[in-house]
Write a structure and sequence with these properties.
Helix content is about 75%, strand content about 0%. It is built from 5 helices and no strands. The longest helix is centred in the first third of the chain and has 34 residues.
Length: about 160
């Protein structure tokens, strides 16, 4: 299903987060020497975009989706994912992630994003009227404005391992 324009800003942020997940996966196993840089990048991504993204979903998208009974269990799962992912971000900020937990974080974030894109967004587009989608999109645009104004560059680019 083609993505409704009201959800495109969230999808664009999903793409950037998925790119981070792919980079972590390709760099794994992350060396101890590079672990701090990866955690700094994860923290920076959370501060500049993901925390705003989560808030927009929790304050706008999830309540709109919860109006449809069939989406309630999915919204509950996604909220629980946010809690787990926030804990990973907290650990990254404190530089407490191991190389293994960094990879688990990337896998968890990737699965969460795919669940939102493939299940929640599809369900919302199927169940909401065009007018409801448009109103929600305007609210999301306002909520995401702060993230759109932030330019995020890694402090120290972590190294990718070459695949042989």
């Amino acid at each position: 299903m083609l993505r409704d324009k009201s959800l495109i800003p969230l999808s664009h942020q999903h793409q950037r987060a998925l790119a981070l997940c792919v980079r972590i996966d390709r760099a794994s196993p992350v060396s101890q020497a590079d672990l701090s840089a990866w955690q700094a990048e994860v923290t920076q991504h959370f501060q500049s975009e993901i925390r705003i993204h989560f808030a927009a979903e929790e304050q706008i998208l999830f309540p709109a989706a919860n109006k449809f009974e069939q989406l309630n269990p999915l919204v509950g799962e996604l909220l629980a994912d946010h809690d787990v992912l926030r804990e990973y971000f907290t650990q990254a900020e404190a530089r407490q992630l191991s190389a293994k937990s960094l990879l688990h974080f990337a896998q968890r974030l990737s699965a969460h994003i795919r669940k939102e894109e493939r299940q929640l967004f599809e369900g919302v587009q199927r169940l909401m009227s065009p007018n409801e989608l448009e109103l929600m999109g305007k609210s999301l645009e306002i909520a995401l404005k702060e993230a759109a104004q932030v330019c995020s560059l890694p402090i120290e680019a972590p190294k990718l391992r070459s695949r042989k």
